[in-house]
Amino acid sequence: MSVHVESVIKIYGNQRALDNVSFTVNSGEIVGILGPNGAGKSTLMKVITGFLQPEEGIIRINGLTVGENGLEIKRQIGYLPENNPLYTDLYVAEYLEYVAGIYRLKSVSRRIKEIIGLTGLGPEKHKKIGALSKGYRQRVGIAQALIHDPSVLILDEPTSGLDPTQLVEIRQLIRNISSDKTVMLSTHIMQEVEALCDRIMIINHGKIVATDSPANIKGLASPFSQVILVEFAEAVNPDLFRKIAEITRLEAVTAASWLISGGESDLRPLIFKFAVENGLTILTLKREESSLESIFLEITK
Q1: What is the pLDDT of residues 28-50, one digit of tens each?
Q2: Which of 39, 112, 197, 287 has its CA at 20 to 30 Å from residue 277's CA atom?
Q3: How does DSSP assign 245-290, residue by residue?
Q4: At what angle do helices 108-119 and 92-102 cross, to 10 degrees?
Q5: Which stretches within the chain are classed as H helix?
Q6: What is the structure's pLDDT at 228?
Q7: What CATH number belongs to 3-213?
Q8: CA angle 39-297-229, nearest 5°?
Q9: Which bin fits 142, alpha (ψ -120 to 50), beta or left (φ > 0)?
């Protein structure tokens, strides 16, 4: 067991930012936390790292209780906050040396060299942080989170504001460092959790409303959300579709192509039977897969 959260409640004024949250993240997992703005993602990460104290609940990192083992917990967690606070007047290697000093690391020069190589900072290591691009600043933030070789890595919006090339590079970096670490990251980017994560947790109004693998989360779609694309060889009078009682929604793409949804069972056999009975030739008949984004919107609406 790496991260264990049990019945955690965090209150700001009259608002429950976290409302009886419980979950476990096992060693070696990459878990993505999704949620609308204000859902409680950053609060959850701050509580796990010990930056905020919950009103109720227990958090354990590798069996150690957060709040009772402060220094030892900090040795086992690497944390990249959403705003990535850096000393922009320091050089990259100088800043990492400063962070290594905080953790009282031995063989500092060797460790800095290792972490610069791991995070791809080599070409920029002699620059001041203030002169770096957003992508390289994120690399510096990840480097400081990794400098003491923690077993748990907490990344709050690690790819926020990056361009497409930087996105790919940071995602690959996270993959590379996750082989022997537990990684929790929050994001608004659906493709990111699909590309990176073993498991997704969706948080809404301070509650965990879904948690599973990306593939299984997609399977949470309501059967009524199925969408069938059918293309006939000729135009079809929409009134004919009234013969299929299970159809609840009908949308014309062209006079011969239609998007159809409704019913708890697969509509395709019914549409095929409908085509045979009405002498229609089907050119295309396929079920559109639910996207992670559509499931997220359905769960958090």
Answers
A1: 899 999 988 888 999 999 999 99
A2: 287
A3: TT--EEEESSSSEEEEE-SSS-SHHHHHHHHHHTTPPEEEEEEEPP
A4: 120
A5: 41-49, 70-76, 92-102, 108-119, 134-146, 164-177, 190-196, 214-218, 268-277, 292-300
A6: 85
A7: 3.40.50.300
A8: 170
A9: alpha
Neighbours of 119 (CB within 10 A): 26
Q: How far apart are CA 60 and CA 162, in angstroms?
A: 32
Q: Whole-angstrom Cα distance, residue 186 to residue 154?
A: 9
Q: Which amino acid is at 186?
A: S
Q: Which single residue is written with the structure tokens 């290792």?
A: 114
Does residue 100 sit in helix, strand or coil?
helix
Per-residue pLDDT band at 289 (split at 50, 70, 90): low
- Please name the residue that has the structure tokens 């480097």: 143
User: Torsion angle, CA of 291/294/297/300, rounded to 10 degrees?
Assistant: -60
Nearest-angstrom CA–CA distance, 29 and 84: 23
* Two structure tokens written together for 180: 């022997």
**β-pairing verdict for 30-34 and 249-252:** unpaired
For residue 38, give the amino acid letter.
G
Domain edges within the chain = 3-213, 223-300
Give yes or no for a contact between 116 and 93, defined as CB atoms under 8 angstroms apart: yes
Q: Who's near 221: CB < 8 A, 6+ residues apart? A: 290, 294, 295, 298
Q: Which residues pair with 252 in a beta bridge?
A: 258
Amino acid in the structure at residue 84: N
Distance CA 39, CA 205 (A): 5
The per-residue pLDDT for range 246-272, each reduced to its tens digit, is 888 888 888 898 888 877 778 889 899
Strand order in the sheet with 257-261: 249-252, 257-261, 227-232, 282-288
